[in-house]
UniProtKB/TrEMBL annotation:
Belongs to the resistance-nodulation-cell division (RND) (TC 2.A.6) family. MmpL subfamily. Residues 231-326, 552-680 form the SSD domain. It holds the Pfam family MMPL. It is a multi-pass membrane protein. The chain crosses the membrane at residues 171-189, 196-217, 229-251, 272-293, 305-326, 365-385, 525-542, 549-570, 582-602, 614-639, 645-665. This is Membrane protein. The keyword Nucleotide-binding does not apply.
Length: 705
């Protein structure tokens, strides 16, 4: 016996040492993901989008593609000669910044004489370094002075502010996530030792995932952006801790039945691993369905997050068991489990009472909870998916937001970020006239043949490239507003109708329009595929058809209730203007995939117990022994996703809030009451058409007793 125990210890030590070496190699990559992240919206568009085609055509009209920074100066009492001198001096210094494309166009005065605007073209090839260029622009302007306010806005200013937000992912977000998981583990285990094991394993999972994501992004196999990077962080720590909780709970049970930790772990691993693998596999496959997206940003998130879950599965099923074996019973101190053959349900008094309550009131419970969730879905009427405007993107004020508001007060709001129209030389005048007649278009001018060094000349000869002309349409509304998007849609309809024009409309606003349209298409394609995939996995795991269909129905009800409740909170508590067009799909993938996790944890154990006890007794036993761990896991996952709130970006705050609320609804209401009560009320037929559905009434009666 001692020989077997010594061999087991050596194996565990070897596994731990091997993982520590892997962690030492991969750990540094966790802090380097920002180096390979990109946040260029246009790069994520589908290649067949009209805005993408327009961007390709624009490259033929310039030596270098640029993204404009708009430096706007405002004095409500009127711009003075001293202000003009300051603006000219600033512009001369702007031209000397590496990455700024010269010559700069002259400052643009506002019609009311209260503002001056300098358009600073920044080389698009600068990539993430655009943030550095904008920072230098802001350093040169020096901020407000003597009643003259200065802001750096426009697409480059917005991108710089986004880069600054996402730079918090490597530090603050990771730190907050670690602290949240640590606090919850201390509360769950009430042990000064045990929390170390799942937290160390989760950290190892993140390091392993980071090295693969880094290498793939560096090789340009996947496009990593700040949003995907933030989700990777919370997903790995949240899901990893969930899997750890499930394995540790089963290990604790088996320590009551086995003298040696190695034997207890072998049994626990055999019992918990199928559910953990099925759970992780479901999440991975659901995430990989994002590869069907037409948006490169969504296609990138799928494999990035899937790599995170795959790394987590590998670590939690190898490194964590080895750590627990080495820790033995003392890891649970001061509540060390003894080999006393105790019934697992004896340690779950609260959940045994919940199971008894479900047994006595099964039908009223599932009917009541279903009605409550259905009522919450009524809030969906308040959701209003849209493209968030620049001023709505952030939870706090930024320089780019302030600048856009100044521009909107004194100029046609689209000044500096015009829509671009490409058409044939022969139809250019007709297309320009048609475009001017579109409501919401303030002005249309051709791109001149040379650099603009003086006031715009409407009679300047247009630049012609391969028989095409580029027109620039200034919009009356801010380029990221709903009004501007409506104008772009109407503009496209109008210019497409000009015979022989072969017109293509692009620009900043057009990118938002095409992104929103692609997001709606993705929802219609990906959501049904995810549901079919999950149904197949559940059917294979539970060896039944009715149970998977009912479980998916409860998850969909939970998802709709979550979105309904979130819609009310976003509108009436957080005062958000709406949700981004990508929000429903992301919320669905994470809530449904993660919600199915808890279904798998519960129903795989219920099936295991049903084989031994009968279905109704199996439901009660499964609920009693998994209720605590599922609830703890749900709280951990909800808390880790709520850590996204540290990033001052509305879309991530909304996603974190939705996942947190949805997971809590899943664990507290759906998995603790609705599903067990429904399964108990249906009885053996829940396993139709599998063998368990034909369990005889006599055995069922004995099991229930």
């Amino acid at each position: 016996m001692s020989g077997r125990g010594g061999k087991a210890t050596l194996i565990a030590v070897a596994v731990v040492l091997a993982w520590l070496v892997i962690g030492g190699v991969s750990g540094p990559y966790a802090g380097r993901l920002s180096e390979v992240a990109t946040n260029d919206n246009a790069a994520f568009l589908p290649t067949d989008a009209e805005a993408t085609r327009a961007q390709d055509l624009a490259g033929e009209f310039v030596d270098r593609q640029t993204i404009p920074a708009l430096v706007v100066y405002e004095r409500p009492s009127g711009i003075t000669d001293a202000d003009r001198q300051r603006v000219s001096a600033d512009a001369a210094r702007f031209a000397q910044i590496p990455g700024v494309v010269t010559p700069l166009p002259p400052p643009i005065p506002s019609g009311d004489g209260q503002a001056l605007q300098v358009v600073v073209p920044v080389d698009d090839a600068e990539g993430e370094e655009i943030g550095t260029v904008v920072e230098q622009l802001r350093d040169i302007t020096g901020g407000d002075r003597d009643g003259l306010t200065v802001d750096v806005s426009g697409p480059a200013g917005l991108l710089a502010d986004l880069i600054e937000v996402f730079s918090a992912i490597d530090g603050p977000l990771l730190l907050v996530t670690l602290v949240v998981v640590l606090v919850i583990l201390l509360i769950v285990y009430r042990s000064p030792v045990l929390w170390i094991f799942p937290l160390l394993a989760a950290g190892m999972s993140y390091a392993l995932a980071s090295v693969f994501v880094y290498l793939l992004a560096d090789a340009d196999v996947v496009k990593l952006n700040g949003q995907a990077q933030g989700i990777l962080t919370v997903l790995v720590f949240g899901a990893g801790t969930d899997y750890a909780l499930l394995l540790i709970a089963r290990y604790r049970e088996e320590l009551h039945r086995h003298d040696r930790p190695w034997d207890a772990m072998k049994t626990a691993w055999r019992g918990a691993a199928p559910a953990i693998i099925a759970s992780g596999g479901t999440v991975i496959v659901s995430l990989l369905c994002l590869l069907l997206s037409s948006l490169n940003s969504n296609r990138a998130l799928g494999p990035v997050a899937a790599i995170g879950i795959a790394a987590t599965l590998l670590v939690m099923l190898t490194f964590l068991p080895a750590l627990l074996v080495l820790g033995g019973r003392w890891a649970f101190w001061p509540r060390r489990p003894r080999a006393d053959q105790a019934d697992p349900r004896a340690e779950h008094g609260i959940w045994s009472r919940v199971a008894g309550f479900v047994a006595r009131h099964a039908r009223p419970i599932w009917l009541t909870t279903a009605v409550v969730l259905a009522l919450l879905t009524l809030g969906l009427t308040q959701l209003g998916a849209t493209t968030l405007g620049q001023s709505d993107l952030f939870t706090q004020r930024t320089d780019s937001v302030d600048g856009q508001e100044v521009i909107s007060r004194h100029y046609p709001a689209g000044t500096g970020s015009p829509a671009t129209i490409f058409t044939t030389e022969q139809t250019a005048r007709q297309v320009a006239q048609v475009a001017k007649d579109v409501p919401g278009v303030a002005d249309v001018r051709p791109l001149p043949t040379g650099p603009q060094t003086g006031p715009p000349n409407p009679n300047a000869a247009p630049k012609v490239v391969d028989g095409r002309v580029q027109l620039e349409a200034t919009l009356a509304d801010p380029p990221d507003s709903d009004g501007a998007e409506r104008t772009i849609r109407e503009l496209r309809v109008a210019v497409h109708q000009v015979p022989g024009a072969d017109a293509v409309v692009g620009g900043f606003t057009a990118i938002n329009v095409d992104t929103s349209d692609a997001a709606k298409r993705d929802q219609n394609v990906i959501i049904p595929v995810v549901l079919v995939v999950i149904a197949v996995i559940l059917a294979l795991l539970l060896r039944a058809l009715l149970a998977p269909l009912l479980l998916i129905a409860t998850v969909l009800l939970s998802f709709a209730a979550t979105l309904g409740l979130c819609a009310l909170l976003f509108r009436h508590v957080f005062d958000f203007p709406g949700v981004d067009s990508s929000f429903p799909l992301f919320a669905f993938v994470f809530l449904v995939a993660l919600g199915i996790d808890y279904n798998i944890f519960l129903m795989s154990r219920v099936r295991e117990e049903s084989v031994k006890r009968g279905t109704r007794a199996g439901v009660l036993a499964g609920l009693a022994v998994t209720g605590g761990v599922i609830t703890s896991a749900g709280i951990v996952l909800a808390a880790t996703f709520s850590a996204l709130a540290v990033l001052p970006l509305v879309v991530l705050v909304e996603l974190g809030t939705a996942v947190a609320i949805g997971v809590l609804i899943d664990t507290i209401i759906v998995r603790s009451l609705l599903v067990p009560a429904l399964a108990y009320d249906i009885g053996p037929k829940i396993w139709w058409p599998g063998r368990l559905s034909r369990a005889n009434g006599e055995r069922e009666a004995r099991g229930a007793g």
